[in-house]
Each structure stands twice: as structure tokens, then as C-alpha cells.
Amino acid sequence: MKVIALRGPVNSGKSHTLNIVYQFLLRDGYTQVAGFFEILGNPKFEDVFDILEKNGKRVGVCGMGDYVIGGGSLKALLKRLTDAGCHVAVCSCQAKLGIEKAVAAYIDHVFVDKTASTGSANDRIVNGLDAQRMFILV
Questions:
Q1: For residue 98, what pLDDT is reported?
Q2: With 0-12 CB in 10 A as exposed, 13-18 as middle and 19+ as buried, what is 79?
Q3: CATH for the 2-137 domain, from 2.40.128, 3.30.460, 1.10.10, 3.40.50
Q4: Which of 63, 64, 68, 87 could form a disulfide with 18 if both were Cys (CB 3.0 to 4.6 A apart)?
Q5: What is the spatial distance between Cα 7 and Cα 80, in angstroms, rounded to a whole number?
Q6: Partner residues linked to 111 by β-bridges
Q7: How far apart are CA 119 and CA 137, in angstroms?
Q8: Beta carbons of 54 and 28 less than 8 angstroms apart
Q9: How many CB atoms lie within 10 A of CB 51?
Q10: Which residue has the higher pLDDT, 135 or 15?
């Protein structure tokens, strides 16, 4: 499985960016695979976990790049996507060694560094551009 990880610090817009990638995939014709959708962690951040499919290609989306409520981890979430037959996973990843190692364990992986915003007026623009960079890699 190819893993595309948006890497950045806490509260940098990773979850919002992943939600935009998710919407780009749906707009591009990907559809949800039944039985996988869930919101991870604090619902305020809408960290989505889901699997989408188009023409036999499965893409897993995992918005939470830190430890999940209940003791889960990004490593465990990526394994769930692998076990479900995903060809590609897009996820967020805090810039911490242990979390980055969960992504780097996959031979085919790419880190996309989160662009820092210069203020709330630019958040939407920056997140949209980062989402486009990730979508192209899918």
C-alpha cells in the first residue's frame, strides 16, 4: 500500500486538509465502501476514517495522525486499511519520530509537509493547496 502522509505540528490544519482531500476524492467519482466510515477522536476535529473506491482502486482516508481514543495508533489504523485491501492511504502525521516511523514502515510512502498559514484568513487557501498536492499523489 502506498501511504501519503500530511506531516505537521499539532493544530496546523492537518485534519481540515484531509477533509478537503476526502471531498476531492468524492468529487472525482470515488464512492464509500460500506461499513468503514467513522469519526475518530474528538468529533470537533472531524478526523475521518473511511475507505473509498473507484474502478477497483481503494483509497483509505485517515485524518487522525496521533493516538486515537481507546489506545489506537496511526500504525493500527494503517494496518486496518491494509487489511481492507487499500491500494493507497492518505493520512495525517504529527512530526514525531514514533508516528513518522508508522508511515516510513511502508516502502511506498510520501511525506507532504503541511504548509504553515500566516493567519486565519489564509487557512482555507493553504489547506486547499496542500489538499491538491496530496490528491495529485493519489
A1: 75
A2: middle
A3: 3.40.50
A4: 63
A5: 20
A6: 5
A7: 27
A8: yes
A9: 22
A10: 135
Which residue has 509537509 as its cell numbers? 113
Domain ranges of the chain: 2-137
73-128 per-position pLDDT tens digit: 888 899 999 999 999 999 998 877 778 888 999 999 999 999 988 888 888 899 99
Cα–Cα–Cα angle for 5, 123, 130, nearest 5°?
Answer: 30
Which residue has cell 473507484? Answer: 54
Q: How far is residue 138's CA from residue 90's CA, in Å, rounded to a whole number?
A: 8
Summarize pLDDT for 37-74 with one digit per residue, the tens.
Answer: 998 876 777 788 999 999 999 999 998 766 555 556 88
Question: What is the grid cell recorded at 77?
Answer: 489504523
Count CA atoms closer than 13 A to 109's CA, side-chain side: 18
Helix residue spans in the chain (DSSP H): 14-27, 74-83, 97-104, 120-137
Spatial separation of the C-alpha atoms in residues 14 and 66, rounded to whole Å: 11
